[in-house]
């Protein structure tokens, strides 16, 4: 009975940790749900197996299990970014996506346009790292991906949890772009046959205060 109870507790703990998965591009290191609250999901070293990612029209594919959540994506051009400061310029986070907000759980693709960000160093052939930071009403979660920017990189087809299949790029209905003035997969085995799409709601203005507070805490860790 005791061992059965431990098994149940282990299953519940695993479910509680399964709040957030970065499915595309491939996340840095092996997935560990208990480390999602740490910088880059507990992985501080850059990987040599980088994912090619487009300069424009790219999507970041995530899965999350909460309602009313939003994501920020910051970028680093450092060769081996291993701290939050690596994703900053002049003390400010280098956002490529700011407050991409959604009210439902499931799979989603967040549109990313490096070329339009205005951040120095985001150019053809550049090796960069993104940190995908997801926030809900309970906590914050972090995963990173090491990329090589390429204008010929393929964009996977996408459909989100709240929309019909799109043409493969997904189109946001509002503004989840980086704010001006800022210097602007996990491996489940079943991830490959799961699709995602552009976030259906971008309501950054309504959560600005809360987001900046959480981002400040995250970058202070």
UniProtKB/TrEMBL annotation:
InterPro entries: BIM1-like, BIM1-like_dom
Occurrences of domain Copper acquisition factor BIM1-like (ranges): 17-162
UniProt entry keywords in alphabetical sequence: Cell membrane, Glycoprotein, GPI-anchor, Lipoprotein, Membrane, Signal
GO cellular component: plasma membrane; side of membrane
Signal peptide segment: 1-18
Biased composition (Low complexity): 170-182
Membrane topology qualifier: Lipid-anchor; GPI-anchor
Region (Disordered): 161-197
Cellular localization per UniProt: Cell membrane
Pfam families, per the entry: BIM1-like_dom (PF20238)
Acidic residues: bias regions: 187-196
Protein name as it appears in the record: Copper acquisition factor BIM1-like domain-containing protein
Species this chain originates from: Coprinopsis cinerea (strain Okayama-7 / 130 / ATCC MYA-4618 / FGSC 9003) (Inky cap fungus)
């Amino acid at each position: 009975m005791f061992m059965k109870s431990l098994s149940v507790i282990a299953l519940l703990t695993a479910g509680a940790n399964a709040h957030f998965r970065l499915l595309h591009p491939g996340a840095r290191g092996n997935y560990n749900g208990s480390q999602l609250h740490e910088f880059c999901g507990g992985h501080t070293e850059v990987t040599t197996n980088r994912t090619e990612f487009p300069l424009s029209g790219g999507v970041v594919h995530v899965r999350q299990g909460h309602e009313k959540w939003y994501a920020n994506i910051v970028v680093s051009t450092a060769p081996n970014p291993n701290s939050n400061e690596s994703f900053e310029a002049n003390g400010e986070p280098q956002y490529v996506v700011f407050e991409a907000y959604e009210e439902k759980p499931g799979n989603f693709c967040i549109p990313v346009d490096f070329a339009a960000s205005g951040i120095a160093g985001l150019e053809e052939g550049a090796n960069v790292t993104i940190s995908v930071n997801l926030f809900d009403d309970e906590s914050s979660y972090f995963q990173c991906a090491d990329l090589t920017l390429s204008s010929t990189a393929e964009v996977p087809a996408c459909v989100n949890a709240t929309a019909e299949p799109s043409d493969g790029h997904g189109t946001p209905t509002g503004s989840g772009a980086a704010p001006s003035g800022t210097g602007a997969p996990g491996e489940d085995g079943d991830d490959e046959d799961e699709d995602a799409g552009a976030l259906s709601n971008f309501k950054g203005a309504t959560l600005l205060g809360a987001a900046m507070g959480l981002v400040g805490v995250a970058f202070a860790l």
